[in-house]
């Protein structure tokens, strides 16, 4: 089935940038019944391969892709987006929707395209694309965030309503916070897992064995958080109040990892403290997060001497 814009012409989606994100989204949109115009890219061979993988057309020049597309996705590195915006703006973009797929840049990086008549958007899939051969079933469960020219009957909104993925609208001013959230749970979590795996490798395991050993623990924890939330998934020595275990951890941690351990452990105490506070029906100030955190922590360490000792150690209090 092909979908139409405003009940008229078929929506045709084109891509500038035949990389992991572009090819994966192109394959997915085709999988969901959308029609692709095709791909344009600096490397002709890569663009031809992307067109072949998505059963669409390879374009030698950007103007032909513009003419034959209703929606254009720019799926290139961030540094190239403004360059492409400038190139697109040389043509008539009336009735075109131009999107970039960066989560860190606002839609207004495409201001030249807007001046040439286009509706502009930042459309970011909340997913880590590590391959052009992304599992299409996995993509059915991802969210997209959209920022830009949100209007009635917007082709972009129609597109996502048709393919069925959940999405939310974000404000331009929130772009940095939004992208930070993605980086913390994706890139920086990868870094944290690397640090933890390296400690297991100190016992003589290679990286593959260490990861395979830790995989059920990692996956089980993530599944629990997604199913039950953070506070109901709390486990470990910080939560149990195992002071001796925390001291042993601090004694074997590399110097550069000690502050990280303490900061993350304090956050676990905070999550636990809020859980205890809510269970005790203690009222919190909805307008003052810092005051609530202090109140919750105070409530926890007042009632539990072992958690008070752990808190003092983590905060460096003698």
TrEMBL record:
InterPro entries: 6-PGluconate_DH-like_C_sf, DUF2520, NAD(P)-bd_dom_sf, OxRdtase/DH_put_Rossmann_dom, TM1727-like_C_sf. Coiled coil: none annotated. Residues 11-125 form the Putative oxidoreductase/dehydrogenase Rossmann-like domain. It holds the Pfam family DUF2520. Residues 142-265 form the DUF2520 domain. PANTHER family: CONSERVED HYPOTHETICAL ALANINE AND LEUCINE RICH PROTEIN. This is DUF2520 domain-containing protein.
């Amino acid at each position: 089935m092909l979908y139409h814009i405003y009940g008229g012409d078929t929506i045709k989606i084109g891509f500038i940038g035949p990389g992991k994100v572009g090819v994966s989204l192109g394959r997915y949109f085709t999988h969901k019944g959308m029609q692709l115009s095709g791909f344009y890219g600096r490397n002709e061979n890569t663009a031809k391969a992307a067109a072949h993988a998505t059963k669409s057309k390879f374009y030698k020049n950007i103007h032909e892709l513009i003419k034959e597309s209703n929606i254009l996705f720019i799926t290139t590195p961030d540094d190239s987006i403004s360059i492409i915006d400038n190139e697109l703006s040389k043509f008539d973009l009336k009735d075109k929707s131009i999107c970039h797929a960066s989560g860190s840049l606002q839609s207004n990086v495409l201001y030249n395209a807007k001046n040439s008549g286009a509706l502009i958007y930042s459309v970011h899939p909340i997913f880590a694309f590590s391959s052009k051969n992304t599992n299409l079933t996995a993509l059915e469960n991802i969210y997209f965030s959209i920022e830009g020219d949100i209007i009635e009957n917007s082709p972009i909104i129609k597109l996502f309503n048709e393919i069925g993925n959940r999405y939310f609208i974000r404000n331009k001013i929130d772009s940095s916070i939004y992208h930070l959230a993605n980086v913390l749970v994706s890139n920086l979590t990868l870094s944290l897992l690397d640090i933890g795996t390296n400690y297991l490798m100190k016992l003589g395991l290679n990286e593959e064995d260490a990861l395979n050993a830790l995989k059920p623990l990692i996956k089980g924890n993530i599944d629990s958080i997604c199913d039950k939330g953070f506070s109901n998934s709390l486990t470990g020595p910080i939560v149990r109040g195992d002071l001796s275990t925390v001291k042993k951890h601090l004694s074997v941690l590399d110097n550069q990892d000690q502050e990280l351990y303490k900061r993350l452990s304090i956050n676990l105490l905070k999550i636990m403290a809020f859980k205890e506070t809510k269970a005790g029906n203690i009222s919190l100030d909805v307008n003052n997060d810092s005051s609530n955190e202090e109140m919750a922590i105070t409530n926890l360490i007042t009632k539990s001497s072992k958690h008070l000792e752990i808190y003092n150690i983590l905060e460096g209090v003698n």
